[in-house]
Design goal:
- It is a single chain.
- This protein is mainly α.
- Helices cover 65% and strands 4% of the residues.
- A two-stranded antiparallel ribbon has the order 1-6.
- A hairpin with a 4-residue loop joins strand 4 and strand 5.
- Helix 9 runs antiparallel to helix 17, helix 10 crosses helix 17 and helix 12 packs across helix 19.
């Protein structure tokens, strides 16, 4: 239905209709909705779906950082604020449906590696994140990061997307406890005595049926239906209050790394600006560098954004925003912010432009005031979305040339390593190293871009460290 027909059917005055049409025209022109064959409704639904699969970060990230000494209340506010700001940047500067929030891998490294392992104050640990983000930003501005992406062969790009798809599905299976840890077999099936497992099973089947019928908003409807079931089953509960108003203390983690350390009389960040911390900063850099690269390639492929060579148009803008997100995450005291694989939920709903990201950003900003409402949705309700998105992301496996072993085996290593190591960067690293070695030893070294050699060497150093 066109905007004009909508105005006529609601019988608004010509003046009001012109005003409404003008507003909608601005949205359409700014985000190129017609060009991307989408509309406002689709983008809004996609944004809500992405946010709901990501909303857990508002509570999980502060809980992890709390172990490091970061005050939980302020961390909740800062996590939502940083996610809102960086996702808004992605929406307005790149016009892609990618959402950004605090990364779930690096926050654990900050807590257990830097703070607990190296006895750094959490404020100093955030300095490592800040510095790493600045370095990656420089690599983007000097085109180094884009050059590395262009050097990756198309088969490996497809393999990265498939591997991340399996990783996303694994996150859903683990988050819903459909799969649990086991001392003998590493993993095993969950217990059907767990009501949350039934919520996840219901949600997955409900969403799958809707997807089969091509119902618009299937993933979002699946999340809502699963949440509705989770409430009477006691898997989640309604909040005691609807709002939580931030106070001045709520922003105490912001720029903490630049504040003076009473023990040294210098800013906390100075504690990590030394040669001894180079290895640690490098490890963070490699992880952040390739996690984002893999996510962008995977989601871009799922949405159909990649060209025949596997390149994403306007990639430099995406990488710049993502690197600045790491800087903002460190400065805000809530670990590195990065592009989220859960963006695939919105893409699966038809989200194709920055309007999807704009909706996500607005919801993150609102969650600073309505965090209790966001907390209603349990992991078992979002797990089905991740499982379905994982399936959709891995469908490009059909385009991998399995008749060429030198191409297919490195792809397989990437695919299998990503979910089993629980690390996008490790999956990419193992695949790259295998690709270089197999191609070289089978007399096909000319197929290997010189940057692949350098990147693989960096991965080896990172893994050894």
């Amino acid at each position: 239905m066109s905007y004009k027909s909508q105005a006529v059917r609601t019988k608004v005055s010509p003046k009001e209709s012109l005003k409404q049409s003008s507003k909608e025209s601005f949205i359409e022109k700014f985000f190129h909705l017609r060009e991307m064959k989408t509309d406002v409704r689709t983008e809004v639904v996609a944004g809500i779906a992405t946010f709901m699969t990501m909303a857990y970060v508002i509570f999980v990230n502060p809980s992890i950082l709390e172990v490091a000494g970061v005050p939980k209340g302020p961390a909740i506010t800062a996590t939502a604020l940083a996610a809102g700001i960086t996702t808004l940047m992605m929406a307005l500067f790149t016009n892609y449906p990618f959402a950004i929030a605090a990364g779930m891998g690096l926050n654990g490294v900050v807590t257990f590696g830097l703070v607990k392992g190296m006895n750094l104050p959490w404020q100093a640990a955030m300095g490592v994140v800040f510095i790493e983000g600045v370095i990656v930003t420089i690599l983007v501005l000097t085109n180094v990061r884009e050059m590395v992406m262009d050097a990756i062969p198309i088969t490996m790009k497809r393999a990265i997307g498939v591997g991340i798809g399996l990783f996303v599905a694994t996150l859903g299976l683990v988050g819903s406890k459909l799969i649990v840890a086991h001392p003998a077999t590493l993993v095993t099936f969950g217990s059907l005595k767990d009501k949350g497992v039934w919520v996840a099973i219901f949600g997955t089947l409900f969403t799958a049926v809707l997807m089969a019928y091509r119902v618009k908003g299937s993933i979002l409807l699946g999340i809502l239906a699963s949440t509705a079931l989770a409430i009477p089953l006691g898997v989640t509960e309604l909040p005691k209050s609807l709002m939580s108003i931030p106070t001045a203390e709520s922003f105490s983690t912001l720029f903490a790394t630049f504040k003076t350390n009473p023990a040294t009389g210098e800013p906390y960040i100075m504690q990590v600006l030394n040669i001894g911390m180079l290895g640690t900063i490098f490890a963070f850099l490699v992880t952040d560098f390739f996690d984002t690269m893999g996510t962008v390639v995977a989601i871009g492929g799922q949405a159909g954004f990649l060209d025949k060579n596997g390149k994403l148009p306007r990639i430099k803008r995406v990488l710049l925003v993502d690197s600045l997100a790491a800087v903002i995450g460190g400065a805000f005291g809530i670990s590195s912010n990065t592009t989220y694989v859960e963006s695939g939920a919105g893409v699966s709903e038809g989200g194709r432009t920055g309007l999807t990201s704009l909706v996500v950003a607005i919801l993150f900003f609102l969650s600073m005031f309505f965090a209790p409402i966001a907390g209603i949705v349990p992991s078992q309700a979002t797990a089905p979305a991740l499982i379905i998105v994982g399936f959709l992301m891995m469908t490009v496996v059909k385009d991998i040339p399995f008749d060429d072993f030198s191409e297919a085996f490195p792809a397989f290593v990437t695919i299998i390593s990503t979910p089993l190591t629980y690390s996008i960067s490790h999956g990419i690293g193992y695949g790259f190293i295998t690709y270089v070695i197999v191609k070289t030893l089978t007399g096909k070294s000319k197929d290997v871009h010189w940057l692949m050699w350098i990147v693989s060497a960096f991965f080896v150093l990172s893994f050894l460290y």
